[in-house]
Specification:
Distance between the termini: 41 Å
Strand order of the largest sheet: 2-3-1-4-5-6
Helix content: 25-40%
CATH superfamily of the largest domain: P-loop containing nucleotide triphosphate hydrolases
Largest sheet: 6 strands, mixed
CATH class of the largest domain: Alpha Beta
Strand content: 15-25%
Length: 299
Amino acid sequence: MTTRCGFIALIGAPNAGKSCLLNALIGDKISIVSPKVQTTRTRVLGIVTKNDAQAVFIDTPGLFKPRRRLDRAMVAAAHDARDEADIVAVVADAARKDCLETVKKIVSRIPSADKRKIALVLNKVDLIDRKKLLPMVADLNKFHPFAATFMVAAIKNDGIEGLEKWIFEQLPEGPMHYNPDTVTDTPDAILAAEITREKLYLRLHEELPYGLHVMTDSFEKRADGSIEIRQTIITNEARHKGMVIGKAGAMLKLVGSLTREELQQIFDTRIHLFLDVVVKDSWDERGEVISEMGLNPDA
């Protein structure tokens, strides 16, 4: 039996909805989502296997002008994913006023000799007047002849089926890279840390800056089948630590409760979650922390 398998890179500006799109394509939550831009920091793989074909989707950090060492590593990871993929999907927020300029800038940076198929995915079309979409599509396809264009609302699962169908039709022949039952290669310990970070972002969206990271120190199954997870929340400043803990520990308790609830759904067992908060000045410039995230600190 001939099998087909290919890698599809989801690239775009921060907050274009790449993670939400990945979760919709997979049909499961494997990448965290929040209103805060640059939520995704590393490459996240989502795997869909149908009969004799396997599509491996790569959710990448948003493309932006880097300032910190972590920023440079994030952007490099996105570029690497783009260059290694069989298909590139440029994901854009159709409702943003700078959508045209953003897409053109991203596409112009893809090597001109690139022969791979590049698709345009206009996301969040539920937030824009449909009459504006066709002129936008025409303008962008005049700038670059995309192999296909899709208009989706990932959060509502609208338009996903057509995009997935097209992608599976483009997959090259080759052996499958993952077991058909696998939906992601993200280790459980890292997924658990990401869920905690998501809850922190959602609860401290306005107050908390980007100087926050979560590490899973231990992830162990107990004899009764439950899981004990110990995590450290790293902040850049003492005042940020105070925000995370909250008055009389209220915020940390709430975040712990929300995280525990979701992890119990994901792992289908009781979760014992222990959270600690520490200050580590300029952690986003430290090579050992960036390496632990699966990024290249020297990018």
